Known about the structure:
C: mainly alpha; 2 strands; D: 25 helices
Amino acid sequence: xxxxxxxxxxxxxxxxxxxxxxxxxxxxxxxxxxxxxxxxxxxxxxxxxxxxxxxxxxxxxxxxxxxxxxxxxxxxxxxxxxxxxxxxxxxxxxxxxxxxxxxxxxxxxxxxxxxxxxxxxxxxxxxxxxxxxxxxxxxxxxxxxxxxxxxxxxxxxxxxxxxxxxxxxxxxxxxxxxxxxxxxxxxxxxxxxxxxxxxxxxxxxxxxxxxxxxxxxxxxxxxxxxxxxxxxxxxxxxxxxxxxxxxxxxxxxxxxxxxxxxxxxxxxxxxxxxxxxxxxxxxxxxxxxxxxxxxxxxxxxxxxxxxxxxxxxxxxxxxxxxxxxxxxxxxxxxxxxxxxxxxxxxxxxxxxxxxxxxxxxxxxxxxxxxxxxxxxxxxxxxxxxxxxxxxxxxxxxxxxxxxxxxxxxxxxxxxxxxxxxxxxxxxxxxxxxxxxxxxxxxxxxxxxxxxxxxxxxxxxxxxxxxxxxxxxxxxxxxxxxxxxxxxxxxxxxxxxxxxxxxxx
Amino acid sequence: xxxxxxxxxxxxxxxxxxxxxxxxxxxxxxxxxxxxxxxxxxxxxxxxxxxxxxxxxxxxxxxxxxxxxxxxxxxxxxxxxxxxxxxxxxxxxxxxxxxxxxxx
Amino acid sequence: xxxxxxxxxxxxxxxxxxxxxxxxxxxxxxxxxxxxxxxxxxxxxxxxxxxxxxxxxxxxxxxxxxxxxxxxxxxxxxxxxxxxxxxxxxxxxxxxxxxxxxxxxxxxxxxxxxxxxxxxxxxxxxxxxxxxxxxxxxxxxxxxxxxxxxxxxxxxxxxxxxxxxxxxxxxxxxxxxxxxxxxxxxxxxxxxxxxxxxxxxxxxxxxxxxxxxxxxxxxxxxxxxxxxxxxxxxxxxxxxxxxxxxxxxxxxxxxxxxxxxxxxxxxxxxxxxxxxxxxxxxxxxxxxxxxxxxxxxxxxxxxxxxxxxxxxxxxxxxxxxxxxxxxxxxxxxxxxxxxxxxxxxxxxxxxxxxxxxxxxxxxxxxxxxxxxxxxxxxxxxxxxxxxxxxxxxxxxxxxxxxxxxxxxxxxxxxxxxxxxxxxxxxxxxxxxxxxxxxxxxxxxxxxxxxxxxxxxxxxxxxxxxxxxxxxxxxxxxxxxxxxxxxxxxxxxxxxxxxxxxxxxxxx
Amino acid sequence: xxxxxxxxxxxxxxxxxxxxxxxxxxxxxxxxxxxxxxxxxxxxxxxxxxxxxxxxxxxxxxxxxxxxxxxxxxxxxxxxxxxxxxxxxxxxxxxxxxxxxxxxxxxxxxxxxxxxxxxxxxxxxxxxxxxxxxxxxxxxxxxxxxxxxxxxxxxxxxxxxxxxxxxxxxxxxxxxxxxxxxxxxxxxxxxxxxxxxxxxxxxxxxxxxxxxxxxxxxxxxxxxxxxxxxxxxxxxxxxxxxxxxxxxxxxxxxxxxxxxxxxxxxxxxxxxxxxxxxxxxxxxxxxxxxxxxxxxxxxxxxxxxxxxxxxxxxxxxxxxxxxxxxxxxxxxxxxxxxxxxxxxxxxxxxxxxxxxxxxxxxxxxxxxxxxxxxxxxxxxxxxxxxxxxxxxxxxxxxxxxxxxxxxxxxxxxxxxxxxxxxxxxxxxxxxxxxxxxxxxxxxxxxxxxxxxxxxxxxxxxxxxxxxxxxxxxxxxxxxxxxxxxxxxxxxxxxxxxxxxxxxxxxxxxxxxxxxxxxxxxxxxxxxxxxxxxxxxxxxxxxxxxxxxxxxxxxxxxxxxxxxxxxxxxxxxxxxxxxxxxxxxxxxxxxxxxxxxxxxxxxxxxxxxxxxxxxxxxxxxx
Lengths: 504, 104, 507, 621
């Protein structure tokens, strides 16, 4: 395959699936589901190829694509106010793209539980995947934003149409919160674009590095700081950072599990990705001055989520709050501002992506059978569905950071980093580690152990197709936990550039 | 010849304009409202003519302009009345504040 | 003036106007003498053909450098051309909608005027966009205004139609008067009605009294024209008129007359108030009057956006909702005018173009949904996705474009305006913030419509049959909306290659 | 020795294998487990003997790179590790064997063996870790393994609660360990034991930091070894199957805390305060747990508290710089306590109850279990010539020699208690006449008795590797080549041995008086001093205290946050939307439908602009 098109094909291959689906008859369920899954495969394959080629020492620049696209005004010959169609990869985005591809394919499998309108569902689903892939592959801010918004619209429909009882409310709060978030983001992006004349991330990073660059319009230090704060807010909605998190609770509870896999598995991670790629990448100095704030926010997230997860009655809510709590660890890592911390944050992004995907898939499995996810009504599940229960327990252990699973590595590195910078804060954060164990065990044991609270006769345990995602995800979680270098070596180069930007 | 300063004309025009506006915004009878609008337009004519005679750079175009204005004012009035009649056929009233079926 | 001077003029530059005029005349005559039972829908097609012909002749003139005839009263500069293209395309689409418009009480006997009044209105609009003289400008304005009054009231037997027409007349009259009053001052100070001659005179205007008066005139003209643009404070007629008027007319008002209004506004303020110094001495002598008045425009723009979007939240009537949304969009456009940045013309032109397609398309769908019955509640859209997926999806495209979602022309337009507002020094942060915030507010009602179409069950599953005219209109609109969303440079390049930045606006 | 890394892998293999195929294998999976653990036991023996002749061996590979720091994983074979390997693998093997009989008929038989494999793997991995990070990793895995085993009867609410409690209580300790080791890392720049020790010796770590980290790490040990105040999980953990108790709560996991302190001994010795803390906690735990043990009615709980108190002894020893004493007692205790648990299990297996008041007169019925139980009891009571005697003696000497007089006497009293309640237990179970409902009681199968016999022998002879009379072989070997660990044998006054002996014999005599001969009424304490009895019986109300303080505090925070979320966060959101909606309402109100109103609005707008313009002096700025 010609490498000039490699990335474009990688990102847009689901489009093919959309077209095929559009031509299929509306009610041939199995076919649609099969095609829907199939459409996610090319991306998966390509991303894995790229991953292993990179591991094999290949240079990532060879995938870069760059083509003229839009230029505003008559400044094209000056090279100003041009928006190119440019995709590229670095270690970080590569890892996240692989994650996206994997989780998407598994979520497509998980979509067997979708009951109606499969056609529309999968078309939107694939559109969503394109958006996510694009977000990670985009080389300039405008392109990033476009893909960012492309993820928003399908999500709105997927939540609002295929969700549960309060789906429309959830869809709306998703829309409005993220709308505001991306509005702030757009302001930042356009200010940068309008005043610097370019939206290419590397170019911007270089411009910001020099004292006062010759840009079409001046960019003062205070403006930079303001921009960074706005970025923090914009991505803080996505991540989510307390107190901008309430929307994602609704989404977690109301959206269909397959979508929540994607949502908490990848969409939330865009926030972290953005903070690292743009926050650290473009405004390193200003970012450093925010380190303390980030760390504090992280600890707040961690504890807030953990404590609230402890008193939830619905397992989905537990997971929702645990997502908040775990995103706190990402912030802690970023706040630490040293290799350990940042690497920990990235690890946490990946690890939580896998773990939450696993847990929500399992939620989907037993919700399918019992039509409830309230802890009390599921007690003693291990009797009826030992395998599901077993994996649930495994997922919980992974999530509470049991060594040998991915959760521990990231948690450990994040805290290692923070202890190096602000030991006292980190020590407070450690309460979160305990609380994580407390609320997860409470919830999971409440569902699986103890006296059986319901009749399990006639309930089948996991079915053949359902094994695939569970096994794949578990395997990956353990792999990263046991052999973390598989990630860290991929991230090495990117981390070094980031640290360079941060000055050491 | 005459020593009436231009400011007088302008003031007169302004006053007329305001009267017209006042009428257009307060009268309940549609016909009177239309007339008031005519008044406003005519006040403009006074302005134009005054300027074209006593302006700092006198020129004939002002009077030409006023001719156009008169013609158009007539057209406006005609259309306005025609619509008023159409409305009157259905509504049996020319009372302006009863024309509020569409609001909010 | 004698014959040869008359013949010496290069009448060719007026070809599009002449074509429209001719077709309008022919239609009126045919309508007059044709028998009653004669199906006047043909006339609509003729009108459409006329518009397309005018468009063709305009493209034919595209290469021509700025020329003006009739003592500088009629200018065909690139600015005029650019806006005429929009006007003609807009009217063509509106005409397509109009052809398949069929109110429940029927309008067979006055269908003919329905069509040619669109043409006369269009003629007025074209005159506005290319007038070089206050008089022609005013005449064009009035031609458009009066035609649209009649159009608004075209459904004689329909009470809301009459009412909307009446409201339109009264407000229109007042606005005309105010505009005219302002113009009279401009004339008074410059002593000429010719825009081109004004420039130099105003340039060395050094009397602060006159400047003061000029500023007053600016406000009056601006407020007067804000009636055409449907921006604050002269926006309030819009909802009622849009609701009462026939759907094609509503489309016409929201697209063609708005575009013409902006063409006029920009021409006046650029030519008159940009060449005027803000003061007699020092720095203020350097800055143009218009720049010193930016804050006021900004204020109005902000107010317009807020009012439009916020009040739209409470609307159940779809046409009324779109009235408010069009107010909001006028506000966005004013942002571009406020900023006066290097992107101003691009932004205005592109956004008006995008708005044209998405809005006309939306109105086409609305006409299908409201149909011959006058039920215009949003609920009418419930379950549209089930009843006719294609229609629902195309409506979704329009809505998303109106909401400014990437992938659609609306987004690029907004982005461009946004850049304009943020590149200037000092940048209009507040205005930009208001714009983006109100955009998010607009999601509420735009997605409300989507919710109806996609999430709610349909009341009746009866088949929707779409007249050919609307099919064409919708297809074109969807295609354009997406095309300009994904490859906007088709538009921008066209603009730059043909009209290199409107440099000839002032000379 | 070069491939000692394989030792932990055997049980891991058994775990994975049983996880995949256990369902088909049914009870034959026992043989898989036994085989693999036997392999690792044999290999550990090989390694041990290898170690006698060869120096410490260490091998490492990079596990994870952070910036320019390389975190490594590997294994190290020093004296302590080698010894622990043998103890752990041996006990594990015996328990595997025993369980075949004990768990017979359980429908999740294979799962049990899988869990055993996992646990053994984690424990073996723990003892050969060459650095703190790896230690921590296996440390947690051990916790997870024990969590699974304790909660093996998942359908019992108590088991569920116990498992949860065990995991969380130990995790609290673990966090201490985590913090401690991370702080050390930022001081030393490495997790490697030897580098840490070098840095500490070189004094490149500030004294305060040494103390802090040492204590934090000790907190981890407290959690795992069920030391006061984190001991409450251990007695509850008796909800697990009895073989589990033998494995986890006698020989391995609970010993891990002691092992950790031993492994980091140079760090502790560098800070007198840290040592003091260890010693005090140890002594307090010893007497405290023993006192509770006096009155418990559940056979396994008695043993559990005795475990806690014995672990206290070990801590006391280490805290008194008695490295050898601590490790020595760790070893002997592993054997006799495992024996006791297995014996208890066999008793329960026979009579299907755990309440000792419902037992009695089993001596005649359980011909093998009885004597073995007696051996264990004698050993733990420190009766001369049994293994416990020597190790306990070492501890007392160490405490005395280190000058902790108070702690010394505490330990002596604890020894008295131990002797008393252990024999109370023995007499109540075995002496007297049999209950009527225990007619068809019969001895356990040989597969269960065999391990007990092995342990019984060890419980007797294990002491003789390190005695004041026949040479302190173990001690000398343990400390050889590492003076930081102190001397192989600490000389102490001879009367200490006498005192210890007398004390334990007194305890036994008293127990016999009360429960054997019945010349003192059983409910002497409960009738004379009911308050004391109540306090002891309710374990000093520690659980209740935690419930009141910690749990409620957590609840408080949770609900606080809950209300913040509900009212503050949501409230703000509602407020904003409300404002927008309100504006809309106002706007549509103004839209009155009155034509002239509209015109007026326009005029007002114009006037407003003009006024502002006039006020601000217009363009003349």
